[in-house]
Design brief:
The structure holds two protein chains of two kinds. Chain A is built from no helices and eleven strands. Chain A is mainly beta. In chain B, strand 7 and strand 8 form a beta hairpin. Classes of the chains: A mainly beta, B mainly beta.
Chain lengths: 112, 117
């Protein structure tokens, strides 16, 4: 059973701080990794994706991947109240299918 | 349109009725996916289309669920004889695909909120 694990939170950070969201996955053969943001009552919105070990930065967001440790993280710098949402980690485990396996999400609350 | 379009946005129906949910992917996206998100649950994969074929339908929960895609574009998810446990938000996503590594990220539509009375 391929699994993706996230801490459900809530993760509470003050405005302007760095929010660190973590995700572990079960299959070493996993190929690609995605972070989605989901506001309450809305659909998931793609934030970042990463395929290779190391860091990938896009504006205030940095995705970090460590395949040896089967660990992927998302850092949000200068957190804003508008960043308050559920962050979903998703993994493409490869093979013939392109399906994503999602974690249950981490609720982030940025306090003004 | 620019994004994935789903209709209807909301559907309320009585137990036992059949429902059809529609998805229009991003233009040029060859891959299309259906997921389901139940209250308090994570996103659950249902089926994956590459063109008009469905190489992976392993997530369909029962034979009451079926899906098709025509013309490599619009897809319809059909639920027959609906049950209360079918109540959920049904999400469609699309992506480009490259065989091997580097498959395109999936972009989601706004979903159809299905409520079975």
């Amino acid at each position: 059973q391929k699994e993706v694990e996230q801490n459900s939170g809530p993760l509470s950070v003050p405005e302007g701080a760095i929010a660190s969201l973590n995700c572990t996955y079960s299959d070493r053969g996993s190929q690609s990794f995605f972070w989605y943001r989901q506001y309450s009552g809305k659909s998931p919105e793609l934030i970042m994706f990463i395929y290779s070990n190391g860091d990938k930065e896009d504006g205030r967001f940095t995705a970090q991947l460590n395949k040896a440790s089967q660990y992927v993280s998302l850092l949000i710098r200068d957190s804003q109240p508008s960043d308050s949402a559920t962050y979903l980690c998703a993994v493409n485990f490869g093979g013939a299918t392109n399906k994503l396996i999602f974690g249950t999400g981490t609720l982030l609350a940025v306090q003004p | 349109g620019a994004g994935v379009s789903q209709s209807p946005s909301n559907k309320v129906t009585e137990k036992g009725k059949d429902v059809e949910l529609r998805c229009d992917p991003i233009s040029g996206h060859t891959a299309l996916y259906w997921y389901r998100q139940s209250l308090g649950q994570g996103l659950e994969f249902l089926i994956y289309f590459q063109g008009n074929s469905a190489p992976d339908k392993s997530g369909l929960p029962s034979d009451r669920f079926s899906a098709e895609r025509t013309g490599g574009s619009v897809s319809t998810l059909t639920i027959q004889r609906t049950q209360q446990e079918d109540s959920a938000v049904y999400l469609c996503a699309s992506s480009t695909t490259v065989v091997g590594a580097g498959r395109g990220p999936q972009h989601f539509g706004d979903g159809t909120r299905l409520s079975i009375l």
